[in-house]
Amino acid sequence: MAKLHFRPYTPNQTVLFPQRIDENIAADAPVRIVYAVVDNLNLDNFKKLYKETGRSAYHPKMMLKVIIYAYMNNIYSCRKIEKLLLRDIHYIWLAGHEHPDFITINRFRKRVKEEINNVFTQLVLVLADKGFISLDVEYINGTKIESKGNKYTFVWRKSVEKNRTRLLNKIRILLEQVDEAIVQENSVKDTSVELTPSMLSNIVDELKEVLDHQVTQDKEQKKALREKKKQVRELEGYRDKLMEYDNHLEVLGERNSYSKTDPDATFMRMKEDAMNNGQTKPGYNLQTDTENQFIIDFQLFPNPTDTLTLILFFHSFRHRYNRLPGIGVADSGYGSEENYRFMQENGIEAFVKYNYFHKEQRPRYTPNPFHTCAKLRKVGKGLITFAKSMLIGLFINRYKWKIATSYQMNEKKAA
Questions:
Q1: Nearest to residue 138, comparing CAs of 359, 313, 312, 273?
Q2: Which of 158, 192, 292, 333 has the largest count of CB atoms under 10 Å?
Q3: Mean pLDDT calculated for residue range 167-195
Q4: What are phi and psi of 327, to 5 degrees?
Q5: How far is CA 263 from CA 20, 147, 257, in A?
């Protein structure tokens, strides 16, 4: 019987001349593309983010290669990237056998957060130089991304403005009740002048100083003093609330809402509505621009609709590439008179539908020059309903009068 033979197996064997790790990586593997592209990028701005003193940092090219390749494989966790740097041959080769931990990876992402946009622009220009794209055509579309913020931490502009107006009226009434001379000097008699938290702070401080030096002898004076101190505390609460409303308006900016747990997110209706109730959730309106299936521009907007984002998105394209595209392609959600005028004035050939485009293509569609808006139709229906009810009421009253008259006549004949 023949003897069994196996190949030698010694995991801890020491190799005198170790082999190159990239020998086991295919020549057409995506990791090699990441390695070559990042090597040709200009990362001089990254050097400005590091200090000349202290311990030597990991090379920014190595860190950028690892992060980009992880993102290509839908891996965004720093802890998962740290594990892959120890056991995945592609990550080990990209890192050159370096082992940065998850804290270092996260700090690098935060440090180069502003420069990543420049890296994206360089990558697009490389694609243009290689002939994959021309940057002459923009295919624009958007999608809404839900934020991780709590959906019940909303702040609405109308509610803040309404409550702020009520609070200012309460403050003016309270200032009129306090009859101290210091308040009369500092209070704003002109209602057109806006009260500010700093003005209220000055009034409160001077009021406290006056009340602390006030001497009381009888019970009536002590009671009046306690009442005035109570009004001062109430004024302090109003001041803090006014400061809170002003902070809300500052965070809102030009938006109509925001989330307390994610101030950059705006409340909007999402496409995925599981409850089918149109509930608003904190999110972002992400606009992307593609050509030949490559993303060439992106921008986040707080606008729930796409109509108001098109002109700003063209400005973003101009800022990134110092030019505007020759052709703009988008769906009917971007169709508006302002957008058409902007594209015409800047020489952009527009392939953008308007809202009634498909409706006008129907064979039975006839344009109505006297077509009124929905509100007027609703008012007209209301007037018709009101007129019908009036006629029915008049008919009933007249019918009742005839019955009463005939009944009276019958009674007279019987008598």
A1: 313
A2: 333
A3: 68
A4: -135, 135
A5: 49, 10, 9
Strands 266-269 and 137-146: unpaired
d(CA 88, CA 73): 13
- pLDDT tens digits along 48-107: 888 888 888 999 999 999 999 999 999 999 999 999 999 999 999 999 999 999 999 999
**Which amino acid belongs to residue 239?**
R
Handedness of CA 258, 261, 263, 268 (dihedral sign): negative
Say whether pLDDT at 182 is over 60. no
What distance in Å separates the CA atoms of residue 310 and residue 140, rounded to the nearest whole number? 9
Please report where in the chains the tokens 């809402």 appear, as a residue. 257
The closest alpha carbon to 310, from 350, 271, 282, 269, belongs to 350
At CA 333, angle to CA 331 and CA 338, rounded to 5? 105
Say what the pLDDT of residue 181 is: 46
Contact 203, 172 (CB under 8 A): no
Tokens read off for 24: 């086991």
Longest dimension (CA), the chain: 141
Distance CA 71, CA 76 (A): 6
